[in-house]
Amino acid sequence: MLRHISSVLDIQKGAEKWTVLAQVVHKGHNQLTREVPPRRIMRFLLTDTEGTKVSVVTYEQHIKIFNKFLQPYQRYYVSNAIVVPADPTYRVGSYECSWILNYKILIENYAEPVPPMLPCIFELTNFSDLHKYADSDNLCNIRGFVIHAFPVKQADPDCTSRDIIIVNEEKKLMLMTLWNEFEHDEGIKIADMISTAPLIIALRVKVTTFNTLSFTTRYSSGILISPPLPDDLSFKQWFTLNKEEIQNLLNAKTYSDANCLLPPPNEEDIKAISTFQASFPIQKAAWVQGTVKLAYGFTKYWTTACVNCHKIVNADIDWIIHCPLCKQQSEVELRARIPIIITDPSSSIHCIISGEDAEKMIEFTPLQLKQAQEDGFGIDTELNDALKKYTVVCFLKSYETLFQGQLQRKNTVIKAYIAAELSHHPLPLALPENTQVSSALGSSSARYPEKSSKDQMFTPTTKLVLEEIAGASSYKEGQTSTTSGAKRSLDFPEYLPADTLPEHATKTAEQFAKEHAKSYNPPGNMKDSPAKKAKAKED
């Protein structure tokens, strides 16, 4: 008597005497469950000939049987498995059940020379939409070619990882971190195949704000290497035609370029600040827009960080370090780190903006910010004057940290755009009073008052002294900002007092300049400087 071959959708809880012709889509790792006590578990993803997927599990001593027998992309007859409600984490598609395999379950090899293409469809996420998943519990499925595999990194004896670079049809390069068993299994296979740029599908991977945006594997993730797909040939032809351009993008390290990873958002992707604040912790990152001002109460506006990953490290800029985050040997750089308040019509939010995004809005380099603090030069007013000119569109990350036994929520700017950078993306919300929109061109451009408050508050003597200080100091080689925004010409001279007293640290720019004008002994080529003549005239 011939058996009836059923479809997956025909098999519901309590079904008996059934057989399904199933193809292995993915074979998971031998893992421990998160139960107490934990059990050994291995997961499989199967599909029938109609493309309906089903999650399948086996436990403990049964793993050894099916680990060897069930191989990716091969087909088998599966009969009378135990049918149970599906775990929501692993449920795939419309089928609401999962199957359990043990040694009593009948599984027979389906003899064929070459298995067919996978008939199932994967719901894939475009790389341009990844910002919607950043730092959330919403995992995504992605597809791309692996074009580079970095060496293995050993965080500790029980933890290893490997970074790979993948590219999809959007020509966007993304970094993905494979952890532990994913590095031991798929990572080694991918590294061995890297010359062929293997195609992968990554299931249930997390999008993080590490490296601006990147992927990371989770306990529930799965990776398909070179899966037989119906559009496999056309996708590979696309890669071959664009291989040179993709190599150029890899050489340019666009996978770590914030401008490439987080380009200006569409208007519908910008959230009201109050909405973003209320959505925590479900949504921890989002685009917001608003006017900017300095958050007062801070005295340090710079930090030292790893050149590669920008992790803050307490190290000198002359050091070469082994970064505890990216595990790379790297230099240490000075970075601006400015506390700001962003305000839109719905609310305000305190956050930290760092690096080039901060430097393009202020008029100081990181070295100047450092020397200002060390020399007691109060620049709060000048920073606020510079910042409040701007309306920004920022990608914010919100997180909680433990401080004095209590959780505090903090916010960090991952990427920021000012109006002048959004000429092809007009700002959708009201702009500040000192920013005008050129409606004739359909673009936004920043136009600022000719004089800021700091220009009006300094006397001629003060201005000239500051200019002389600027001319007497040079910026340290290698620390020149890469941003295109104009920087204040003020550099703080090496002959200013090094042993600054506490009361000195609170002096305003005007007080500092006046006292400096009295005691300042200029170099020989500055004896008859305009500042000295102006001071004499005022006296």
From TrEMBL:
Polar residues: bias regions: 476-486
Compositionally biased tracts (Basic and acidic residues): 501-518
Region (Disordered): 441-460, 475-539
PANTHER family: OS03G0429900 PROTEIN
Protein name: Replication protein A 70 kDa DNA-binding subunit B-like isoform X2
